[in-house]
Specification:
Structural class: alpha/beta
Radius of gyration: 29 Å
Helix content: 25-40%
Oligomer: single chain
Strand content: 15-25%
Bound molecules: zinc ion
Largest sheet: 8 strands, mixed
Number of strands: 23
Mean pLDDT: 92
CATH class of the largest domain: Alpha Beta
Length: about 600
């Protein structure tokens, strides 16, 4: 009873207090205070964006009573602030969710959310108490900043007045809103936007689902150092240390993917550590989702491994094949991947056909899909007969036939054409890297540097040999294009995949040439977009991403140009959201070196 009485007394006091204020402080005055303080608050942040030290300092109360509070406690006085405020600034500062509340005449409390990148990236909440000065200006009297714990849900955002292409193949929706809350898409289309949602006017922009690359290799660098079998640079770039760096720093490729609008990747073969990338990437809004097939089973005993681990497990016997397949299942691999390179003239074809089925049976038992690298028509058909759910390359030796289509349909298989990876090898052999169409600003400086080394590497193949390879690949490309059209016409699902990590097929940035090639083959921009979003997501076993629909994860790309007018417009990335966290393209690009 006493407690209730006390509460009542407090309520009475509060009411009396508010009543007293209301007489001398009108709603109009409160609104004016809010507006003026908010303008000063925004000016305070704008000065950081403009890197204007004098303007920045002008926003603070020049008094020993100025208080700044951070995780380390309070610091008092203007002088220390001025002394500390040197000429260094954050690389980027993204400020959202500005809110102000008038607390007394001439006193306004404000808060905003920040994400700041200066070396590393942190986000958090910052507060201000802004007070009116005798001359009518508003100054910051109290300032705080606290980093948010990593597991803090991302605040809600709405993108409004955009044209939305949702990845399902449905026609675009104009003047549409996308609301993201708690890392998921809450609403698409005509949405009411709640007051706590930060609105971004996306008029004149297009919104598509985050792109998905269904064929990548984090165990490869994008240059020759990761594939010494293609060009041996081990004297300068020892393979063991190359792989060690790949394992230690996958985040540089994560950033390249996001920068390129890619919010999910399927690693279809590599070292055992690629399995661990999945949980790490899933927990980070600065990384694309990762699915991983782990080490691949191979019909050839490929030597590109490190002493402590293999990325190629040789299907040298039935028991070795079974043991390899079981290892994938035990490690909760997202697939069993087979490098099916056995050729029909080889006497061991029958053997490898049988071993493919041993692996397929194990995959079925373990409830994971079988995925196969098979580029000859007979191999691809045999893989489908064995139950392959995903072919990660085009059939490139001859036209696909009715039997192939029937087998693909029966297996419920998805076809990843992987059209452009051979171009990278040709560039490597020709010792010339052509970056046309590749957004190199999304490529980390180390990889950029190596790609540039291609041109100065010791003379490679004789020119005539390179010309012959080029010719063969051009002819092969026409077969791949015709097969892609045939597969498309038959309604077999098609997923975009680049084979990134292979020489000069750069992580992230290579998706654009691949999508261009799919369009060149005859797919419409809408078909390319669906292949690069919904279908590629399904190929990696995910139905919670790949489309813009309520309940899906909030992974999307805001573009400056219409992706349905030209596939090339997918390069015009303005913003990328991963799990509802919105990144500007500027934040994701690597600085020029
Ligand atoms: Zn591959």
């Amino acid at each position: 009873m006493r407690r209730i009485a006390l509460t009542a007394a407090l309520l009475t006091l509060a009411a009396a207090d508010l009543g007293a204020q209301a007489r001398t402080w009108t709603a109009a005055e409160r609104a004016a205070d809010s507006a003026q303080a908010l303008a000063a608050f925004r000016g305070n942040i704008a000065a950081i964006h403009q890197r204007d030290r004098a303007a920045y300092l002008r926003h603070y109360l020049q008094s020993p009573r100025l208080v700044r509070v951070g995780p380390g406690g309070a610091t008092y006085g203007y002088e220390p602030l001025a002394a500390e405020r040197d000429t260094t600034w954050p690389d980027t500062l993204v400020a959202t969710h500005f809110e102000v509340v008038p607390v007394a005449p001439g006193v306004v409390y404000g808060t905003y959310r920040y994400r700041v990148t200066q070396g590393s990236t942190s986000r958090g909440v910052s507060e201000r108490v802004i007070v009116r000065q005798p001359d009518g200006s508003w100054k910051v009297a109290v300032s705080t900043a606290f980093a948010s714990p990593g597991n803090q849900p991302v605040p809600a955002f709405a993108l409004t007045h955009a044209t939305v292409v949702d990845g399902t193949g449905a026609p675009p929706r104009t003047d549409a809103t996308v609301v993201m809350r708690g890392g998921k898409i809450e609403c698409v289309g005509a949405c009411t936007v709640a007051p706590d949602v930060e609105t971004i006017d996306a008029r004149g922009k297009w919104i598509v689902p985050g792109l998905v690359d269904a064929h990548v290799h984090y165990s490869q660098t994008g240059w020759a150092d990761g594939r010494p079998d293609a060009m041996d640079v081990r004297a300068r770039f020892p393979y063991d240390s190359t792989v060690a760096v790949l394992e230690q720093h996958p985040e540089r490729f994560f950033r390249s993917y996001l920068c390129s609008g890619v919010t999910a990747t399927f690693d279809v073969g590599g070292y055992p550590w690629t399995w661990a990338l999945r949980a790490r990437a899933e927990a980070s809004s600065a990384a694309p989702h990762v699915a991983a097939a782990g080490p691949l089973l191979s019909t050839i005993d490929h030597w590109v491994n490190v002493p402590a681990a293999r990325q190629f497990v040789f299907m040298g016997s039935d028991s070795a094949t079974l043991a390899g397949a079981r290892m994938m299942v035990h490690n909760r691999s997202d697939a069993i991947k087979i490098w099916y390179l056995a050729g029909p003239p080889s006497p061991d074809t029958t053997q490898f056909k049988a071993r493919l089925r041993i692996a397929a049976a194990e995959a079925r038992r373990g409830g994971i899909p079988l995925i196969v690298h098979a580029t000859d028509l007979w191999q691809a058909k045999d893989a489908l007969r064995a139950g392959a759910r995903l072919l990660v390359h085009s059939v490139d030796d001859r036209p696909v036939d009715d039997e192939f289509i029937a087998l693909a349909r029966q297996a419920g298989a998805t076809y990843t054409p992987t059209l452009t990876v051979t171009d990278g090898y040709v560039m490597l052999y020709a010792r010339h890297f052509d970056a046309v169409g590749v957004p190199m600003e999304c490529v980390d400086p180390d990889t950029r540097h190596k790609a540039a080394l291609t041109d100065s590497a010791a003379a490679g193949m004789p020119e005539a040999r390179v010309a012959a390879i080029r010719q063969r690949i051009a002819a092969q490309r026409q077969v791949m294009y015709a097969n892609l059209r045939r597969v498309r016409d038959a309604g077999i699902p098609i997923a975009m995949g680049t084979d990134a990590g292979n020489p000069l097929t750069l992580h992230g940035a290579s998706v654009f040439r691949e999508m261009d090639a799919m369009a060149e083959a005859g797919m419409t921009p809408m078909e390319v977009l669906v292949a690069s979003t919904r279908t590629a997501a399904r190929a990696m076993g995910r139905t919670d991403i790949g489309t813009l629909e309520p309940g899906k994860l909030a992974d999307l790309v805001v573009l400056d140009a219409d992706p349905l007018a030209a596939v090339a417009n997918l390069r015009r990335v303005r913003l990328v959201a991963r799990g509802g966290e919105i990144w500007t393209r500027e934040e994701l690009e690597y600085p020029a070196r």
